[in-house]
Amino acid sequence: MTDKAFANLALNPWIIRQCASIGVKTPTPIQANCIPPILKGRDCIGAAKTGSGKTLAFALPIIQKLCEDPYGIFALILTPTRELAYQIADQFAVIGKVMNLRHCVIVGGMDMVTQGQELAKRPHVVVATPGRLSDHLESCNTFNFHKLRFLVVDEADRLLGGHFDEQIKTIFQALPKQRQNLFFSATITDTLEKLKSVTGKDVFFYEAPAEVATVEELEQNYVLCPKDVKDAYLVETIRNYRTSNADGNILVFTDTCKNCQILSMTLNEVGFENVALHAMIKQQQRLAGLARFKSNTVKILLATDVASRGLDIPTVQLVINHNVPKVPKEYIHRVGRTARSGRKGKAITLVTPYDVKLLQAIEAHINTKLTEFKLDDSEVGKIFTQVSVTKGEAYIKLDEQDFYEKKMINKRKKWILEGLDPDEEEEKYLKRVKKSKRKKVKEITEETS
């Protein structure tokens, strides 16, 4: 495409100049295909690989329509994770700076009163996670969506996949029937296909043509390792990569908040400085840690799947899957954090004998065979004891912190709603946790003896 391609999409010259100021000079396929029908008022369902420019595909036409008739609240963008909400808001802020676009981010972990005050000021664009926005709709009447023009559901496969049904229902009841609906995702699911068939209006549907679900610039590998030695293989994988690449940022995915925190503490102790990102960390700390990673102050980020959706961090050159995702599409979202916008990247997945079928399912889904990444087993053997002992100490340190405080508050709320005695249930739960910890410490002691 030539530099005139954005102009061919009927975008205003000042919007094209703003795009150029952030290095976006030609539209990606999803932008070239979706922007014109959105500008014509059609609903849109767009699907393309991660890193293909989906955010600007809906942000640019929304900003153009906003400048023609500026009022608030003009557009609502729903997204599954807090970090992605802030990232989308940043892109709206940069492109809309010239027209003094006002936006606010409504996510959990932040002060609700302050957020309510921001909503009462009627910003042009509201970017929100469903849980916190539904809380505001149910608890206050200082704002409304009666004149809303655009609804965007980003990462639509996840938001419409069942986990957010109650919150989505609350939000949709507050929206006007006459609005433009835009649904975007990296993966097409049965939910989106059904959405396409039941939407009443003339819907524009775009799915990027591709034989493989991951980009060509991504080198995909696996490391075979015994289950009980996986953490040592993780350390050796990072150490091996660092011998040839001292500067590239590394993003490590794992399955649970607890494992993420334990691995983060373990890696810090064995000499790999990192920050952790998971749901049990306070929102301000999550944003601060992510900022340190984005600015290259810290070059390793340990995360659960809260970081697998939409986050665009250009410096990420290696993604490591500490666990094999049970759902192939989650693998696509994870490894999509690298090799974005034409850059090269690498993904390494740690595979135990129990994970072979999961790996085969991923390979079938992405139509690509992963190649083995060879490590020196003798080097892993040298560090195994140190890693295991360090991890055991991390479990003990975590015990002394208030890591489980937030989790317990949420559990007590759930027990109360279920009509159970929260004190009795907490006592039962703590007994189970203590028993599990004793078993874990015993296993670690036996492994290292």
Automatic annotation (TrEMBL):
Domain Helicase C-terminal: 217-381
CDD domains found in the cross-reference section: DEADc_DDX49, SF2_C_DEAD
Domain (DEAD-box RNA helicase Q) ranges: 4-32
SUPFAM superfamilies the UniProt entry points to: P-loop containing nucleoside triphosphate hydrolases
Pfam family, one: DEAD
One CC-aspect GO term: cytosol
Family: Belongs to the DEAD box helicase family.
Name assigned to this protein: RNA helicase
